[in-house]
Structures are given as structure tokens and as C-alpha cells.
Amino acid sequence: xxxxxxxxxxxxxxxxxxxxxxxxxxxxxxxxxxxxxxxxxxxxxxxxxxxxxxxxxxxxxxxxxxxxxxxxxxxxxxxxxxxxxxxxxxxxxxxxxxxxxxxxxxxxxxxxxxxxxxxxxxxxxxxxxxxxxxxxxxxxxxxxxxxxxxxxxxxxxxxxxxxxxxxxxxxxxxxxxxxxxxxxxxxxxxxxxxxxxxxxxxxxxxxxxxxxxxxxx
Length: 217
Known about the structure:
Blueprint (H helix, E strand, L loop, with lengths): L1 H7 L1 H18 L1 H11 L5 H33 L3 H20 L10 H5 L4 H14 L2 H14 L2 H23 L1 H40 L2
Helix pairs in contact: 1-9, 2-8, 2-9, 2-10, 3-9, 3-10, 4-7, 4-8, 4-9, 5-8, 5-10, 8-9
């Protein structure tokens, strides 16, 4: 009941929305649809579905583990959270600008690297799960949000949001061909730029928060 009450609070709803939007945009399942279609075109439909499911599960588990343990790891290294928040904001800003300009983001591996693997398991883990779904941007965003959560309720909300994002991402990937046909090249570009603008706004918020925390403003 306490979690339900927390969900009904305005700050929890705001935190959920910010977490969902930022993680959904940075995981970028819609933007990855053309790449997934290309990578998996030589496999059967059954193999494709199995690979997408496994990749999504691996990506989700990886992100959940890093989200929970990230702050502890930084404390052991003596890294202040505000430094990581600012660095994360800068990373997200670079990614968002690349999305707005229609450039290939540096958190994605190249086509040559992707095509060198012939084993299904290898392709499923790298590059499908990591870094295409859970890359540096997603890891950074989740760790910063976990620190920003402030209480156990919001942290549970964040972990639930991560699961929700990957469930939706899995559905998008499984339905990739119809989505690609519906959006077309122009629609995909427009969607990518809209998500880039949203991500840029979140990146600016991260940087501002890091500066405020660093200088106790």
C-alpha cells in the first residue's frame, strides 16, 4: 500500500515520467528497428523472436544490476555523485545532438563489427543486448536517476520503470517490420529527432543538478 500511495504523489509521478521518457529515449528501440531488421534478416522468424527476447532480458538484467550497484562502486572509487551526474549529462547531450543531426551515435557499434559474429548467442549478447539496448547512455542515465530518486519508493519505481521500458522495447522489436513500414524513412527520422530533443532537455537538467549539488547552490 505504501508503494501505491507513493505512486499517487505528484513527485513520484513526475519522477516516473522523467525516468520512463529518459530511459525509453536512450534505449531507443524505435531507432534501433532498422538495425535489428538488418542484423537478423538471415535468421528464421522463430530464431529472430528468441534472439530478441534473450537480448532484451540480458539488457534489462544488466541495467538493473548496474543501477543498484553503481553508486556503491563510485563510493568505493571515491567519485562524487555530482561529478558523475555532470559527466552523464554531457554524454547524454552529445548523444542527443547526434540524434538531432541524424548522425550515428558513438554508443553504437559499427556494421563491420556487428557482421563479424556468426554465432546466434554472440550476436544476441553483442551487439543486440549490449550496447544497442543497454549502452553507456542507458547505464549513465539509470545510475543518475537511482541517486536522484532519494527514497526507497522512488527507487522501486525506477526499477519497475526499467522493466517496463524493456517490455515495451521487446514488443517494438518483435513488431519491427510493421513499424518500419508504417513510419517509413521520413517517419523514422522525425521520431529520432523528436526523441533527441527530449533527451537534450533531460541532459541539461542533469548538468544543472550536478552543478547545483557541487556548489551547494
